[in-house]
Amino acid sequence: MQLATYRQFFNFKRLFLAYSIPNRSYNSHILYSQHEDIDIPKVTISEFVFEKFDQYPNKISLECAISGKKYTFDDVRKKSQNVAKNFMKLLKLTKGDVIAIILPNVPEFPICMLGALQAGIVTTTINPFFTPGEIARQLNDSNAKVVITSATTYASVYVAIKLTHKIIPAIVAKTKETETLPEGAINLHEFIDVESEIDIERNIQADDLAVLPYSSGTTGLPKGVLLSHHNIVASLSQITCKAVEHWITPTAIKDNVVPAIMPMFHIYGFSTILFAQFRLLSRIVCAPKFTPELFLDILKKHKPNVLYIVPQIVSFMSDHPSMKSEFFDSILSISSGGAALGRLDEEKLLNKAQKDINIMQGEMITD
Q1: Fold entry, domain 6-44+229-363
Q2: Would you state the pLDDT for residue 341?
Q3: Residue 291 banded pLDDT, cuts 50, 70, 90
Q4: What b/e readout covers 266-304, taking b as 16+ CB neighbours within 10 angstroms?
Q5: Fewer C-beta neighbours within 10 Å, C or N terminus of the chain?
Q6: pLDDT at residue 50 above 90?
Q7: In the chain, helix, strand, coil percent, each to 5?
C-alpha cells in the first residue's frame, strides 16, 4: 500500500507565518510565508484565550486522564478568576510578583497559570522531577513568592524552600484521594473553589511580563526567559490562524480532542498545547505522566484527533506491539517537536497506521 507522506515544517516564531508587515521588501536572504500576514492583537493572554469561551460554556475543556476530573470552559474561566482574586486577597500578591508552578500535567495547572496572568502575576514553571537544589536555585533566581505543587512532589519542594532561606507559602494539590495535605500547606482545590468578593483591576498591558520559563541555553546554568503577554499572543495567533488550523485539522471536527502529553512546565506544553487549544476550543486530556499503558488508554478511550509529541513517542507508536492500527482511526495530524523526525521514521509510522496522516515538525524554542 502506497501511503502519502505530508510534511510541513513549522518555525512558529519566524518561518511559517510572518508578522504583519505593511510593505514587504522581498530579497533572496529573507524567507517569507506563502500565506497572508495576520494581525497580532495587543491583548493579554487571558483575553486572547477566553475570547471564544462563551460559544461553548458547558463543553468539556479539561479532563484528567487518570482521575477523570473534568472542567468546562466556563469552569476554567470562573475558577481561574477565583485563583486571581485569592492571590490578591489571601496571599497579598501584587502586580509583577512571581509564583512558581511545580506540577505534573493536571487540569489545575492551566487554571492556576491563567489565574496568575489575570492578576498581573508572573509564572515561572519548574520541572517537578528537579532535585531540591535545582528547584531552590530557580526559586531564588526568579524571586518566587509562592509555590504551587502536588503532595507527591512536596517533600522535594519543602527541602528546596528551606535551601532558599526564605518563607515561601506552598499551595498543594492532592492528586490521589489517599494523600494527606502537608501541615501548613494551602489546599489547592479549596484555593481554586473559594470565591472572593473583590474586583480584578490590575491594568495589565500586552507588553507586561507574563511568564518566566527557564531554558538550559548553550552554556552554564539555566536562565530565565522574559516573555510578555504580547510575545505569547503573537505565537498563539500564528499557531491558531486558519492556515495552520487547516493543516492540523483538515476535516471539520465538532469536538476536537488533544492529549496533553508534553510537560506543561515547558513552553511546548503550556503554549502550543494548553493556550492554543483553549483558543481553538479543543478538549484537552491531561496525562500527569507518560506511561505506555496510559498513552494507549488515551488513544482508545478519548480518540484524539491531533497529537503533539516528540520523536521518541513517534518511535513508540511505530514499534510497540500493543499499538494497533485501529488506534490511529481518529488521528488526523501529528506534530512532532524537540528534535528532527527522519523520513524513514515518518514512513514507518504511516505504515503502522495504514492511513494518511498529516505529519508536521515544529520548532518551539523557549526564547
Answers
A1: Rossmann fold (3.40.50)
A2: 87
A3: very high
A4: bbbbbbbbbbbbbbbebbbbbbbeeeeebbbebbeebeb
A5: N
A6: yes
A7: 35, 20, 45
